[in-house]
Queue: 2 jobs
Job 1
Amino acid sequence: MTFNTDAIVLKIVKTGESDRLITFLTRDRGVIKAFAGAAERPKNKLHMSTNLFCYGNFTFYENAKTVKTEECDLTETFFGLQKDIETLSLAQYFNELIIETAPRETQANEYMRLLLNSLYFLAEGKKNPRLLKAVFELRLSSIIGYMPSLVACKSCGAFETEPMYFNIETGELFCRDCIQKDAVCCPLEVIAAMRHIVFSELNKLFALQINVGKIPLLTQICEKYLIMSVGKNFKTLDFYKAIAN
Ligand SMILES: [Zn+2]
């Protein structure tokens, strides 16, 4: 059976003499693995279109045993992601998160849109990469079913106080009068940023503005919350942090 879908290359493993086993995120069928025969050869038609982060409309052939990719109408290569090791390693972390969390055998449009937008802004290089990382992590936590309860204080319903307190373990918010001992003290601006990441429409998600001095706390919270949501650590994250620090 042959099928077409928009797809992006998340991971490549060289196999055999010159084949690639590629992990894709596809719009229609989530994460799939497919072989690209002879794609390691420079003259092969899939050589350029099956590099890391390549995005386009791919044609796949599937039989009982394997899936193969046969053609690609390439839309975007995200070449800007290769500009330095820090950018590249953050993009690889995004890919690893998608491989870990996106569904199999079902549509993954929301994951696809989040990833494409994040890679676009990362490649463009105009937005703070740490902010992009925080946005990706917290939005992804929400998509996979761990949306934090950020509407109001869990105890009294207060909408905003300066500061507020966020419990990373439970995803619950508390006001300054209902402080909970395990919660992290957050300036209201950080809570407002988290609300934006969780509640905004995707087309407004990356318009997020925050004082640069508040980014480290936002980054720290979003990372911890994501790790808690997914329940594991990521090698690509350790690598990115080693580079970025
Ligand atoms: Zn309260």
Job 2
Amino acid sequence: MISTSHLEVGQQPSGEPARVPVITVEGQPGGPRVYLQANVHGAEIQGNAVLERFLALCRARPPKGHITLVPLANPIGINQKSGEFTLGRFDPISGENWNRQYHFNNRDIEAFCHTHLHLSDTEVTDAFRQQLTAQLAARLDSPWGVKTGQHMALRLQQMAVEADIVLDLHTGPISARHLYVPEYARARAHRFNIPLNIVMPSDFGGAMDEAAFSPWWQLSQQFAELGRTFPVQVDAFTLELGSQEKLDIAQAERDAAGIARYLEVMGCWPEGTHNVAPETQYACALEHYRALYSPCAGQIEYLAPLGQPVPAGAPVVRIWHYDRLGQDTPLFTEVSLPCDAVPVLHFASANAQQGTELYKFLTHTEAL
Ligand SMILES: [Zn+2]
């Protein structure tokens, strides 16, 4: 059973509500609660296509569980155009990243573990979710108000906090498909069939995936210190499904199948219901996910194809200095890396100042 509604996440200066569509798939009982959102960054539109293809899979083979889909999750960001480009990565007023404004405060976790130490896993899960829900409501009700981005993030998070599985669909600038994997969920991450994987620790930095998994992960860690085993109850991933400003429906169909394949092991469908042609997968720890900053300004020729391993010492960018044209000095600078690496994404422009983040690379790669 599929139904659609709208949720208000803010208000425009004109008084118009900023609303997001909310599509609910009420599947057979016995499956997990799943929350998927796309396009929190305005230019990252590919996730909407993935949600559309994913909904088609749900229609074709009704899943178990309760699935919520939120495409166009940032109605302010998607409308943030400048010339032909979409901006929408940062709130234009505050300059803050739309995906760093979710809420989690771990102050109460230690006390919670002591008072709930001898309750069952189910009782602990229910009580902890209630506490998280209450924290979000209290934050929204602050007598001092919250910022535009925090208000929107909190409204989305109120839906996500109900879920056992949270998937936040993004893209890079010019980017290969990659996945942020919380370390504890590593064993099932390969099911997404995403080639490049970054394995994350339990820290909270304000992003949706962290806001979903950090509380549960830190709860599990805190219980472990008290001698109790309490499995992490929530899985959350950020999927980076290609490049911004780009819609690729054929790839969206493959990624929707990858998501469904992952959800098979979480109980939404029988194992083997969905298939995708397997891709070679690389992984590295977040600390080994490295940015390359431009040593000088110039016009950039990106030499390293995304997703293809490059050896140490091979040139990855050529920086042209057309201001030297007609002079006797070298017209370009080549930059190479100190170690083997796999390029994940690069800057969207070929015009850079000194210090621009030109590329990001997996280094010290290992099997997922
Ligand atoms: Zn993004």
